[in-house]
């Protein structure tokens, strides 16, 4: 038996409001993403990217249709169960990093494990390993304001990774970064993809989407393009070993 896809979106619609003022934000979106794929979701402002992202992230449910995350039908769960599923299965990466100020990089990365009830020594070991994976082993005691934007986003990637989620979900992860930091963060995502992580990322930028194995384009709440750029089990197209963070 082939494994269930990590994401299985089945003819999903999302309608905000009712009657004449109703907004049809998603109009029958279907999408399957297998383990190890790296998908960029593109589209103009208002095309439904955030709505789709919220559904993929179990932050909202479809109006009609089904969404299965790692084989579980999210719509069948109550809100408490959805939040447990979200915490177990998804690592979020935001445009604005969302790190806790005046807490070390290590403490920030330990946080999701602390919420999950993982004990101190295990927590520390796993957080250090995640920071090592993003090339920040030498910055673990630094607080966010002592790190560059690119380094802060790499801490956020480590925090998303540390729970070993089924899916990394990134919303414009390089939107606040300069070009050097963008290259660093995309390099980290390339390596994570090569190691078999499943990644979905929203972006406006062709240069960012060029790193993904597959590009999906939304127009007016519908997928109008689903283009593969690299095989699911191969390296992402822009993959390159860089000196930084490859230990
Ligand atoms: P994008 O992220 O691609 O800019 P969104 O998913 O945010 O698109 O929005 C898709 C459509 O749904 C837009 O027309 C937007 O105005 C509308 N919309 C989004 N969220 C809401 C909401 N909470 N209530 C009403 N309309 C919404
Ligand atoms: Mg949006």
Set out the fold topology.
Blueprint: E1 7-16, E2 23-33, E3 38-43, H1 49-56, E4 64-69, E5 72-73, H2 79-89, E6 90-93, H3 105-115, H4 120-133, H5 149-161, E7 167-171, H6 179-194, E8 199-202, H7 206-209, E9 214-219, E10 222-228
Parallel strand pairs: 3-8, 3-9, 6-7, 7-8
Antiparallel strand pairs: 1-2, 1-4, 4-5, 9-10
Helix pairs in contact: 3-4, 3-5, 4-5, 5-6
Adenosine-5'-diphosphate is lined by residues 16-17, 23, 25, 43, 45-51.
| Major β-sheet strand ordering | 6-7-8-3-9-10
The CATH superfamily is identified as P-loop containing nucleotide triphosphate hydrolases
Number of helices: 7
Order of helices and strands: EEEHEEHEHHHEHEHEE
Write up what this structure looks like.
With 247 residues, this protein is of the alpha/beta class. The chain contains 7 helices and 10 strands. The strands form 2 sheets. Strands 6-7-8-3-9-10 form a 6-stranded mixed beta sheet, with helices on both faces. Strand 4 (64-69) and strand 5 form a beta hairpin. The mean pLDDT is 94. Magnesium ion (MG) binds at residues 49-50.
In short:
The chain is built from 7 helices and 10 strands.
Q: What are the key terms here?
A:
binds magnesium ion; globular; alpha/beta; binds adenosine-5'-diphosphate; single chain; 4-stranded antiparallel beta sheet; 6-stranded mixed beta sheet; Rossmann fold; 247 residues
């Amino acid at each position: 038996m082939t494994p269930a896809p990590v994401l299985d979106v089945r003819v999903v619609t999302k309608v905000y409001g009712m009657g004449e003022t109703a907004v049809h934000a998603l109009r029958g979106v279907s999408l399957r993403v297998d383990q190890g794929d790296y998908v960029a979701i593109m589209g103009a402002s208002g095309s439904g990217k955030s709505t789709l992202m919220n559904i993929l992230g179990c932050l909202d449910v479809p109006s009609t249709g089904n969404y299965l995350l790692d084989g579980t039908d999210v719509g069948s769960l109550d809100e408490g169960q959805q939040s447990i599923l979200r915490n177990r299965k998804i690592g979020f990466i935001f445009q604005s990093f969302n790190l806790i100020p005046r807490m070390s990089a290590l403490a920030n990365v330990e946080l999701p494990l602390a919420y999950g009830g993982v004990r101190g020594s295990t927590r520390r070991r796993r957080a250090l390993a995640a920071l090592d994976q993003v090339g920040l082993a030498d910055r673990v005691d630094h607080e966010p304001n002592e790190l560059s934007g690119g380094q802060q986003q790499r801490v956020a990637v480590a925090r998303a990774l540390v729970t070993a989620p089924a899916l990394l979900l990134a919303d414009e992860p390089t939107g606040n970064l300069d070009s050097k930091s963008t290259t660093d963060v995309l390099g980290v995502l390339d390596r994570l993809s090569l190691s078999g992580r499943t990644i979905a990322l929203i972006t406006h930028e062709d240069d960012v989407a060029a790193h993904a194995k597959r590009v999906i384009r939304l127009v007016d709440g519908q997928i109008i393009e689903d283009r593969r750029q690299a095989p699911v089990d191969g390296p992402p197209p822009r993959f390159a070993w860089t000196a930084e963070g490859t230990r």
